[in-house]
Each structure stands twice: as C-alpha cells, then as structure tokens.
Fold this protein.
Amino acid sequence: MQIDFMCTGGFANLRLSYRADTEDLPSNIAAELEQLVYNAGVLDTQPEELQSGAPTFPDVFVYRLSVNKGKKRQSLSFNDMTAPDSFQPLLAFLREIALQEKR
C-alpha cells in the first residue's frame, strides 16, 4: 500500500508530509497503518462526501491523502470540519509519524 499524506494549517501554520510504501516499513508499523486505513474506510470514501460545502475556519488543518492498494486508488482532500470521525485515528497516526520524520 502506498500512502501520500500532507497536513497544513493550524495555529502555527504547520506543514507536514509523509510518503511511504508499507512494503518498505517495519512489519508492525505497516500492519498498523494498513489497519487504520481499512478501519477509516479511506478506499471506499467518495470524495464528494468530504466536500460538504462546510465553511473553512482559521487554524483548521487541511489534509490531502492518497492511498494506492493494487487496483484501488483514492485521493482525498478535506479539513478538520469535513473529515469523518472514522478518519481521526489514521490522521493522528500519520501526523505523529510525519512529525517524527521531521525531527
């Protein structure tokens, strides 16, 4: 599974990115990441579900997430206001791993 993640915004105008292929990650991290993607339903989410016309607010995080798994491909853009609750554990994991890489 290939993952491309970007998070921008927030109070400090944070800019994080993370790109990985789970085949290249340690098995425990790869398994957790793939499980979080499946639990969130990323590959089954319709992009228009995240574009509900919700207004943007200052200091909101904006996300771009692309996932490729075999023939399934998904590219989504959303913010804190439009992200489904099911995405929250995945987003927290990706933000943390992106922060660790940045250090």
